C-alpha cells in the first residue's frame, strides 16, 4: 500500500473527505486554514510514530561508521536515531581490536570517570542528551575519554522517512494492516467518533500490532535450525494451539 492508496483508503473507511478547515489565529484576528491532505497526513505520521516506538522492526536497522577524536568524550548521533543496538570502537591499524562498548547511564560514566581529562580506550557509553553547542542533536558520552582517534561502528534502529514524504515505506509494502488501523484510530479520535467505533479500531490495531511483534520479535530473529520448526497442535476441543 503506497501513500496514495493509504490516503484514499482512510477517506473510504471513514466516509469523510476531511474538507479544509479554517480557524481564528492565536492573535484573534487572522485566520488559519488546515488543508484536507494536511489533516490526513497527521493521522498517518501519528500512527507511524506509535508503531516505530512500539516495535523494533529488523528491517529498520542501520549501520554507520565514523570516528571519535582524542580528548572529546562525546559522539553525536544520527538525526534518524531511534534506539541503540550496539557501539564498537577499533583503531585503523587494529592495535586496538574491534571492541563492543558496554551501555551504561550517565551517572555511571561520571562516577567511573570523574575526571574528563583521564583518557584511554573507551569501554562504556551512555545516552547523554544534547550538547550545549549542538542543542538539536542527541549524543553519547564515552568513558573513558578517547586517548586517540578511534574508528566507531554503530548499529541502531532508526526512524524511516514517513510514507507521506517518501510515497512508500516498509510498513506499507510489508505489513499495511497495522498502518491502516493506526491511521483509522487517529482519524476516529479526530472526528470524535462514537466510542464503539473507537473501541473497534483499537482492537483491530492491537491485533495487527501483535501480529507485527510476532513477525519482528520472533520469526525474523530466529531460524528453524536453532529454534526448531514452528508446529501446530490440535487442541482437545478442536481448536488450534501454537506450540
Describe this structure in words.
With 243 residues, the chain is of the alpha+beta class. It folds into two domains: 115 residues; 79 residues, no CATH class. The strands form five sheets. Strands 3-12-5-6 form a four-stranded antiparallel beta sheet, with no helix packed on it. A four-stranded mixed beta sheet has the order 4-10-9-7. Strand 9 and strand 10 form a beta hairpin. The longest helix is centred in the last third of the chain and has 23 residues. The radius of gyration is 24 Å and the shape is globular. The mean pLDDT is 87.
Topology:
Layout: H1 3-14, E1 21-24, E2 31-34, H2 36-54, E3 61-68, E4 74-76, E5 81-90, E6 99-100, E7 102-103, H3 106-112, E8 119-120, E9 124-131, E10 134-143, E11 145-146, E12 150-158, H4 163-166, H5 170-174, H6 176-190, H7 195-217, H8 224-227, E13 232-234, E14 240-242
Parallel strand pairs: 7-9, 8-11
Antiparallel strand pairs: 1-2, 3-12, 4-10, 5-6, 5-12, 9-10, 13-14
Helix pairs in contact: 1-6, 2-6, 6-7
Count of alpha and pi helical runs = 8
The structural domain count equals 2
User: What is the chains' assembly state?
Assistant: single chain
Helical fraction: 25-40%
Structural class: alpha+beta
Rg from C-alpha positions? 24 Å
Low-confidence stretches: none
Strands across the major sheet, in which order? 3-12-5-6
Distance between the termini: 32 Å
How many strand units? 14
Summarize the structure.
The protein folds into two domains: 3-58 and 160-218; 70-148, no CATH class. The chain has eight helices and 14 strands.
Amino acid at each position: 500500500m503506497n501513500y496514495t492508496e493509504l490516503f484514499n483508503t482512510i477517506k473510504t473507511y471513514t466516509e469523510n473527505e476531511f474538507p479544509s478547515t479554517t480557524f481564528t489565529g492565536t492573535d484573534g484576528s487572522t485566520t488559519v486554514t488546515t488543508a484536507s491532505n494536511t489533516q490526513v497526513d497527521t493521522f498517518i505520521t501519528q500512527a507511524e510514530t506509535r508503531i516505530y516506538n512500539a516495535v523494533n522492526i529488523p528491517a529498520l536497522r542501520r549501520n554507520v561508521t565514523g570516528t571519535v577524536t582524542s580528548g572529546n568524550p562525546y559522539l553525536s548521533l544520527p538525526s534518524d536515531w531511534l534506539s541503540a543496538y550496539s557501539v564498537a570502537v577499533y583503531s585503523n591499524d587494529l592495535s586496538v581490536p574491534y571492541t563492543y562498548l558496554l551501555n551504561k547511564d550517565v551517572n555511571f560514566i561520571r562516577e567511573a570517570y570523574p575526571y574528563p581529562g583521564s583518557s584511554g580506550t573507551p569501554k562504556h557509553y551512555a545516552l547523554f542528551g544534547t550538547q550545549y553547542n549542538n542543542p538539536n542533536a542527541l549524543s553519547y558520552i564515552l568513558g573513558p575519554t578517547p586517548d586517540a582517534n578511534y574508528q566507531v561502528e554503530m548499529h541502531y534502529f532508526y526512524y524511516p522517512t514517513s510514507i507521506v514524504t517518501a510515497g512508500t515505506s516498509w510498513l506499507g509494502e510489508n505489513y499495511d494492516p497495522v498502518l491502516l488501523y493506526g491511521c483509522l484510530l487517529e482519524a476516529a479520535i479526530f472526528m470524535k467518533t462514537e466510542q464503539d467505533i473507537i473501541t473497534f479500531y483499537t482492537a483491530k490495531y492491537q491485533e495487527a500490532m501483535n501480529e507485527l511483534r510476532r513477525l519482528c520479535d520472533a520469526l525474523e530473529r530466529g531460524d528453524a535450525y536453532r529454534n526448531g520448526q514452528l508446529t501446530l497442535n490440535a487442541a482437545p476441543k478442536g481448536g488450534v494451539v501454537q506450540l
